[in-house]
From TrEMBL:
Signal peptide: none annotated. This is PadR family transcriptional regulator. Pfam families: PadR. It comes from Planococcus glaciei. InterPro entries: Tscrpt_reg_PadR_N, WH-like_DNA-bd_sf, WH_DNA-bd_sf. It comes from the Bacteria. Residues 7-82 form the Transcription regulator PadR N-terminal domain.
């Protein structure tokens, strides 16, 4: 879904072709390598979006000794679908790093709706970890495994606290238009 949001958000800014979007994603920081985005994956998503009627070919550029370039534009249906894809991204992700393409495209959505989604996610996270803490306190472990249990517990709780802090920070920044 993130790749499709990226494509639609770039095409809403202007017509473009797949290779150029991949080049933009790789310079100056090679985000394409970090995300594992290959040309074949990118072309697959362009094709998928075109089949759904969200984008369309508006021009074919012919160059001597080079393959033809298909230039794409976003359709009206694609303009309407972009915010819905962003909302779904926030609803379905569990980690903040999975939300990045949505965060970059907050201008296309209702920020209050995103904040509501994140607050709900934060509340569920807190409830889940409170239940885990309560359950862990009732756990009986023999002395030979106590060190391992303590390590796993400390690590997990530390990670949960960090997630909680960053969700709170993210909510605040979106509410205060710091992003």
């Amino acid at each position: 879904m993130s790749i499709q949001i990226y494509i639609l958000s770039k095409l809403i800014e202007g017509n473009n072709y797949p290779y150029e979007l991949k080049r933009q994603l790789s310079e100056p920081i090679p985000f394409d390598e970090y995300t594992g985005l290959t040309e074949s994956k990118l072309y697959y998503h362009f094709d998928s979006l075109a089949k759904k009627g969200l984008i369309e070919v508006v021009e074919i550029v012919k160059e001597e000794h080079r393959p033809d370039k298909q230039v794409f534009a976003i359709t009206e249906k694609g303009r309407k679908e972009l915010p819905e894809k962003i909302y779904k991204l926030f609803e379905n992700t569990t980690e903040i790093n999975e939300m990045m393409v949505g965060l970059v495209n907050l201008k296309h959505v209702d920020r209050d709706r995103i904040v509501d989604t994140l607050e709900e996610k934060l509340q569920k996270h807190k409830e889940k970890w409170e239940l885990i803490r309560e359950s862990a306190s009732q756990l009986k472990v023999d002395d030979s495994k106590q060190g391992l249990v303590d390590f796993i517990s400390d690590y997990s709780l530390s990670k949960a606290k960090q997630t909680e802090q960053w969700l709170e920070e993210l909510i605040e920044r979106i509410q205060n238009h710091k992003m």
